[in-house]
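Hi Q.,

Before the meeting this afternoon, I wanted you to have the adenosine-5'-diphosphate prediction in hand. No need to reply - just skim if you have a minute. The sequence and ligand are here:
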Amino acid sequence: MSTVLEQIEQQIAKLSTKSVKKNTGTIRAIADGVAKLDGLSDVMYNEMVQFPGGAIGIALNLEEDEVGCVILGDISGLKEGDEVQTTGRLLSVPVGKALLGRAVDALGQPVDGKGPIDSKEFYPVEKIAPGIIVRKSVSQPLFTGITAIDSMIPIGRGQRELIIGDRGTGKTTITIDTIINQARINRTGLASGDKNFRPVYSIYVAIGQKNSNIVRTMTALEAAGALEYTIIVAAPAADNPANQYLAPYSGAAMGEWFMENGMDALIVYDDLSKHAVAYRQISLILKRPSGREAFPGDVFYLHSRLLERAARLDGKGSLTALPIIETLAGDLSAYIPTNVISITDGQIFLETDLFNQGIRPAVSVGLSVSRVGSSAQIKATKQVAGKLKGELAQYRELAAFAQFGADLDAKTKAQLDRGGRIVELFKQPQLNPISIELQASFLWAMQKNYFDDIDVKKIVVAAAKLREFLTTRKQPLLDKIRTKAALDAELEAELKTACDEWKAGYKS
Ligand SMILES: Nc1ncnc2c1ncn2[C@@H]1O[C@H](COP(=O)(O)OP(=O)(O)O)[C@@H](O)[C@H]1O
Ligand SMILES: [Mg+2]
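Predicted structure with the ligand bound:
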């Protein structure tokens, strides 16, 4: 018996497991960044293939007699009959902190002219058979710095929250503000020496945008001191669809590096509507069957396996995802919006009407929801914002009704009055995230009626003045609110003194 075993063991030992997956083929057809290849019988799904001149392809369609692949890089020199080689490597991108402060393309190559990036580690762009992720429930907040969101639609680390709305409703702005807010929190937190402080690093993936827009975003981040905590992955509209298709997965790999190494990261996909269109283009050329709205049938799978990668991992870090979807005429029931709504843990819906009325950020209270974030909300915010969402929703209903000049009783009038003031308090200029301690403070003041006798039209200015007063004169109080994360009797008393002082000196 044992000799049989030994024989088998010897046999196994002699087996060479080193299969060199080098395999050569030729281009059968090439167009629009997509090539059909002959002869690559051993290629793997998502394997990189090497074209002459340095361009890299990724094998996507593995068929009996041909391989369909998308090509990244310069394809102008490629033609039918050119030779291609498999590499035996799945597509991977550089990861790590060396990428912070940089703009890279879908392959992780720098596009900002700041020289090469010194990163030694690479992660696969697609997670292969990820298995069941050891997720931990969301319990740590991720503050956007936007009062309407942090108080009513709170986001937790590891959450996937969709930002959805028509063009020009402020979607990108919300994500840029959120990234800037992380940078500010990082700076304060790291300077405080608190060992438990967990910074958040950001990855902004720009898909199908104009180059000028990407540059503007980068400039805004730099001006706000946020670029050093941010990686920009750029696949502009001028790039071929393969880059746009790939960019979010590359960004996700960079984010996973932070998560796997015990850190927290935030990733913005701006936007997945354009991503779906890029994929549709590729699929049409690859002659994949199309389904609803001419999108290939697996576009749902495409987005779900991307967003699945955001998580909070037990014993490690987290990756929070803010995907963006652009709707047409507010239509949430179109194919791509419904898909992504069903994959995420909630959505922030931005309304054109509100935006045009000057209610910015144009967050629709009724249609926005965060399904997991409230368990991560800090107590101070819960204390002052608990009823806000209900009050505001009621206000919108009453306001619509009151337009018809109906006679209103005193109670309704008071409700309208209060609602109108809350709407004003939530208005916030762009590039101006508000710290969670300041949010809690001025919402507390609202709750304690400090704004009630101020003309509704002057609320925006009054609230800004109160914030300025607190920041310049009461910083120690704000610091205490931040560290305690709750308003106890002592802090409430201090807040009252501060607000009284402010109100006494307030001139409308
Ligand atoms: N809170 C805000 N206050 C003032 N202007 C804003 C605000 N949010 C966005 N904007 C402006 O509205 C325009 C559209 O915003 P953007 O974020 O680009 O929209 P989207 O990404 O939805 O197309 C931009 O010019 C931006 O500066
Ligand atoms: Mg935008």
